[in-house]
Amino acid sequence: MITLLLYGVNWLIKNVIIETFKAFTNKTKTTFDDFLIKSNFPRYIGRIIPLLIVFELYPLLFSDFPKVLLVFEKILNIYLIILAVWIIRSMIRTSRDYLKTREGFNDKPIESFSQIIIIFLWVIGFMFIFAELFNRSVLGFAISLGAASAVILLIFKDTILGLVASIQVSVNDIVRIGDWITFEKYGADGTVTEINLATVRVQNWDNTFTTIPTYSLIADSFQNWRGMQESPGRRIRRSVYIKQNSVRFLTREDLDKMAKISLIAPYLQHRQEEIDKYNAKNKVDKSLLINGRNQTNLGVFRKYIDSYLHEHSAIHKEMYIIVRHQAPTAQGIPLEILCFSRDKRWENFEYISADIFDHILAAIPYFELQIFESPSGDDIRNLMDSLNNNQAL
Questions:
Q1: How would you class 302 by CB atoms within 10 Å of its CB: exposed for 0-12, middle for 13-18, buried for 19 or more?
Q2: For residue 354, what are the domain limits?
Q3: Does residue 184 lie within any of the structural domains?
Q4: Torsion of CA 168, 171, 172, 178, to 10 degrees
Q5: Residue 9 pLDDT level (bands cut at 50, 70, 90)
Q6: For residues 210 and 184, is the Cβ–Cβ distance under 8 A?
Q7: What percentage of the chain exceeds 70 in pLDDT?
Q8: Do residues 29 and 114 both lie within one domain?
Q9: Pair 224, 322: CB distance under 8 Å
Q10: Which of 157, 172, 187 is the last residue of a domain?
Q11: What is the DSSP string of 35-100?
Q12: Of residues 298 and 1, which shows the higher confidence score?
């Protein structure tokens, strides 16, 4: 009968508190109280009054049974500890969910911090529970727990590593929610959607998800694209390979022809005047083209690309624009183009990059240069046909 009465009181009080709390939240503008309901905070609070009633009644009910009274007292004390942990945990979860909606915190690893606090909360709670069970002080139990630290470290190794990693990731600002990271070891290439104590969740560009151990963020090497996203431009860095035997000095006829290219016409005139002045001053014999100073088709082409990039509206003019040679290879001379796109969005960035290199590839024949390509099936077939025709002749 008493049990049914307590159950009825518990049900009534909990529902009254919950409904009152819901009515209150509907009238407020803040979302914090909505998260309190979501985390069952009113439900846990509603259990306090029935518990206090039980604390007052149980000595009267079991006064003739001292052993039962002792056991019941321990059970109530343990339940009170657990209820306190639940209430505090509910507040932590409410704060976590609320902070995630705030602009200044939506990229912070709030999940990791909340998990760390909840773990410490349960550790303290279990210390109080064991101290209650074995009639020891919390301090004494903590000292005995320290003696078994080696075993505890072995059992909870992954959790401890995750805890350390979460703190370092947060303090050193290594990764934030919303960062684009590339982690080849785990096949991750996309946006960080969640950081918690044990794992980091990444949504890849194909909408799949990759889970990465949090500790690997400080133990292994990965690429974080945040710097690119925060910078004024996104880097374009590609090379075209020029056939070495297509590079040559330019004759007067070549210069006259290239002078019609508007982007480099002023440069050609100014540059050639300098060269002619130098050659005349040093009485260079120009009957042989190699003598003295000359312009080359590759050098003029480099200047053309540089001028083209400086004129391109999608290229950031206040960041590096470099067109340079690299060491010759078996595939030819790498001509590297390095510049920065104003638009950092992936789709637009790829469009801008393709547009630039479409133009560069189409412009190469105007400078009588050739792009290196590995021989294809058609090339080999044409070569064989040519050899067969020569033999037939």
A1: middle
A2: 234-367
A3: no
A4: 100
A5: low
A6: no
A7: 85
A8: yes
A9: no
A10: 172
A11: HHHHTTHHHHHTTHHHHHHHHHHHHHHTTT-HHHHHHHHHHHHHHHHHHHHHHHHHHHHHHHHHHH
A12: 298
Q: What is the DSSP letter of 108?
A: S
pLDDT in tens, 180-202: 999 999 999 999 998 887 889 99
Give the pLDDT score at 377. 63
Mean pLDDT of 143-156: 66
Longest dimension (CA), the chain: 127
Spatial distance between the Cα atoms of 381 and 99, rounded to a whole number of angstroms = 68
In this predicted structure, the answer to whether residue 45 has a pLDDT above a threshold of 70 is yes
Task: Confirm whether pTM is higher than 0.70.
Answer: no
Amino acid residing at 226: R
56 contacts 6 by C-beta, under 8 angstroms: no
Residue 118 or 7, more confident:
118
Tokens of 339: 């510049």
Three state DSSP letters for 291-314? CCCCCEHHHHHHHHHHHHHHHCCC
> Cα separation of 345 and 315, whole Å?
14
Cβ-Cβ contacts under 8 Å for 328 (sequence gap 6 or more): 244, 334
Query: Which tokens hold the place of 122?
Result: 């349960």
Cβ pair 170, 114 in contact under 8 A: no
Is the pLDDT reported for residue 308 higher than 80?
A: yes
Tell me the CA end-to-end span of the chain in Å, nearest whole number.
118
* Average pLDDT of every residue of the chain: 83
Number of structural domains (the chain) is: 2
State which amino acid sits at residue 173.
D
The answer to whether 160 touches 153, Cβ cutoff 8 Å, is yes
* Whole-number Å distance between alpha carbons of 36 and 26: 13
Give yes or no for a contact between 243 and 370, defined as CB atoms under 8 angstroms apart.
yes
DSSP string, 371-392: B-----HHHHHHHHHHHHHHHH
The verdict on 34 and 125 lying in the same domain is yes
Q: Which of 28-32, 117-121, 357-361 has the lowest mean pLDDT?
A: 28-32
Residues 145 and 17 in one domain: yes
d(C-alpha 238, C-alpha 352), whole Å: 13
The dihedral over CA atoms of 254, 258, 259, 265, expressed in degrees to the nearest 10, equals -130
